[in-house]
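Customer escalation, tier 2.

The customer says the design service returned an amino acid string that "doesn't look like it belongs to this structure." They asked us to rerun it and document both sides in this ticket. The original structure tokens are below, unchanged.
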């Protein structure tokens, strides 16, 4: 990251932390506001602005969380990809209710999303998988995500085996790999303030649109 880009990011962050969110909601559409905040994080050169914490729970309510990479936002919600035999995917099958959290510390901004996850269509998964680096596609075949393995050497041996297997051509999507879209029911925007009197707006789906409330910090 260049010095100029770093300084620009710091200037943008300072402005964000010293400026209130409007007295009324910035927009009636929270997805539009998310796009604006996400675009700002990308332009500032933040490392992995697409990192989001995905929180799932078992059928009996035991929670777990991990970071995944946000890949797309459509009118239907937030998309990500993963091994469909991983712990997160098993929990999603039993309990599709999830939470997502984005945190851009440079700007003291946080977005919290609550909703339901549904599998992405096969064609959409295939299109995305084809854009991944070859090493990432090999890794998807080599790793039985979340399952124990004897050693790092054993994992690398599996990766080499997959390299040999697909050395002559393209690498298809593994049968146990896919994606999910989170349909948002609640989205909260949090703007940190130096005086700790943070700004918060909560959007909740209601009657085909969004109910908007300002929350106390």
């Amino acid at each position: 990251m260049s010095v100029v880009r770093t300084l620009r990011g710091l200037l943008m962050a300072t402005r964000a932390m010293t400026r209130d969110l409007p007295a009324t909601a910035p927009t009636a559409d929270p997805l539009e506001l998310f796009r604006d905040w996400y675009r700002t994080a990308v332009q500032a050169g933040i490392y992995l602005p697409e990192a989001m914490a995905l929180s799932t729970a078992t059928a009996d309510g035991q929670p777990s969380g991990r970071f995944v990479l946000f890949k797309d936002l459509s009118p239907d919600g937030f998309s990500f990809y993963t091994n469909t035999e991983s712990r997160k995917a098993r929990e999603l099958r039993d309990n599709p209710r999830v939470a997502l959290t984005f945190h851009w510390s440079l700007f003291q901004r946080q977005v919290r999303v609550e909703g339901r996850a549904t599998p992405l269509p096969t064609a959409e998964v295939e299109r995305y998988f084809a854009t991944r680096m070859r090493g990432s596609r090999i890794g998807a075949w080599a790793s039985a995500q979340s399952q124990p393995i004897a050693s790092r050497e054993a994992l690398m041996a599996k990766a080499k085996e997959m390299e040999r297997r697909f050395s002559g051509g393209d690498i298809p999507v593994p049968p146990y790999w896919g994606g999910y879209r989170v349909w948002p029911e609640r989205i909260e925007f949090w703007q940190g303030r130096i005086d700790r009197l943070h700004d918060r707006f909560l959007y909740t789906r209601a009657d085909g649109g969004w109910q908007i409330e300002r929350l106390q910090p």
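Tier 2 assessment: The sequence is consistent with the input. Residues 3-18 form the longest helix (16 residues). The mean pLDDT is 91. Sent an explanation to the customer and offered a walkthrough call.
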